């Protein structure tokens, strides 16, 4: 969509019409960055993603335009790197799942369906949880699969944030100075994907890594192709109808 309304004025194509306003270049860049980097739960993942993609477009294609912003940037939100690579489809990682030994020496732990049902009750809505096993049995880790869409991304981020707020997120797990108890969890990213462990091995088999802007661009291309195909179908039907009407 066109963001330029005049030589010096711009608009945000992703904001509702009732909230549209004219921006100078850097004001629009500031707006798009602020929404894209927002940590507010009121902001949906799709809204953040579209605005991050707009930042990319502004910086790549319109960065020669230089205006002074009228307002300071909002520093209250935690910055989100638009180049950050997430595992795609969205996957959560759970570690420190309690395990026990059976009389024959096998390691057992909570089933995937039990964890899945618990996460569904908490509103995270995964469609599958896969415990990871090796030759000894249950490894105490699991992969949580979310729906391959933007609501699925919202659920994945809510899942991650819930554990982070309880100090059971990834950073807390990696701290080696304290005894760990309870589950720790986070959303899988590029470093997890590349890790030389059972988690990395499984992620590389079942997924890829992509940035949010890359996913938005792919979605836009699919939509453009869908519109183009629909246009061709309509034109063929019109041609067929006109041909029939001749007789």
Written description of the protein model:
Residues 83-194 form the XS domain. This is Myosin-11-like. Residues 12-55 form the Zinc finger-XS domain. InterPro entries: FDM1-5/IDN2 (IPR045177), XS_domain (IPR005380), XS_domain_sf (IPR038588), Znf-XS_domain (IPR005381). The chain has helices spanning 25-36, 45-61, 112-121, 150-165, 170-174, 190-194, 198-206, 212-245, and strands at residues 85-88, 91-95, 99-101, 107-109, 128-134, 137-145, 184-187, 208-211. The chain is an alpha+beta fold. It has 2 domains: 1-80, no CATH class; 85-212, Alpha-Beta Plaits (2-Layer Sandwich). The relative contact order is 0.13. The protein is globular. Helix 1 runs antiparallel to helix 2 (45-61) and helix 2 packs across helix 8. Strand 5 (128-134) and strand 6 (137-145) form a beta hairpin.
CATH secondary-structure class of the largest domain: Alpha Beta
Distance between the termini: 43 Å
What is the H/E string?
Answer: HHEEEEHEEHHEHHEH
Low-confidence parts, pLDDT < 50 over ≥5 residues? 65-80
CATH-scheme architecture of the largest domain: 2-Layer Sandwich
Helix and strand content put the structural class at alpha+beta
Biggest sheet character: 4 strands, antiparallel
**The CATH homologous superfamily of the largest domain:** XS domain
Query: What share of the residues does DSSP label as strand, in percent?
Result: 15-25%
Count of DSSP-assigned helices: 8
Strand order of the largest sheet: 5-6-2-7
Radius of gyration: 23 Å
Averaging pLDDT over every residue, what do you get? 82
Query: Could you estimate the helical fraction of the residues in percent?
Result: 40-55%
The CATH topology assignment of the largest domain is Alpha-Beta Plaits
């Amino acid at each position: 969509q066109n963001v330029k309304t005049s030589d010096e004025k711009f608009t945000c194509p992703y904001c509702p019409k009732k909230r549209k306003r004219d921006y100078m270049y850097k004001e629009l860049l500031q707006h798009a960055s602020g929404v894209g980097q927002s940590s507010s739960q009121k902001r949906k993942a799709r809204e953040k993603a579209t605005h991050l993609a707009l930042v990319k477009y502004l910086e790549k294609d319109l960065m020669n335009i230089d205006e002074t912003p009228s307002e300071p940037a909002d520093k209250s939100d935690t910055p989100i790197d638009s180049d950050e690579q997430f595992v795609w489809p969205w996957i959560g990682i759970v570690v420190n799942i309690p395990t026990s030994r059976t009389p024959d020496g096998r390691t057992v732990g909570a089933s995937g369906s039990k964890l899945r049902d618990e996460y569904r009750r908490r509103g995270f809505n995964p469609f599958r949880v896969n415990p990871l096993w090796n030759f000894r049995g249950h490894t105490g880790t699991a992969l949580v699969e979310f729906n391959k869409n933007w609501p699925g991304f919202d659920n994945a981020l809510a899942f991650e944030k819930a554990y982070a707020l309880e100090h059971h997120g990834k950073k807390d797990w990696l701290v080696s100075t304290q005894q760990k108890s309870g589950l720790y969890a986070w959303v899988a990213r590029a470093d997890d994907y590349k890790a030389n462990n059972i988690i990395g091995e499984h992620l590389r088999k079942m997924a890829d890594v992509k940035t949010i802007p890359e996913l938005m661009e792919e979605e836009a291309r699919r939509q453009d192709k869908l519109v183009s195909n629909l246009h061709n179908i309509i034109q063929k039907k019109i041609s067929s109808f006109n041909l029939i009407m001749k007789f």
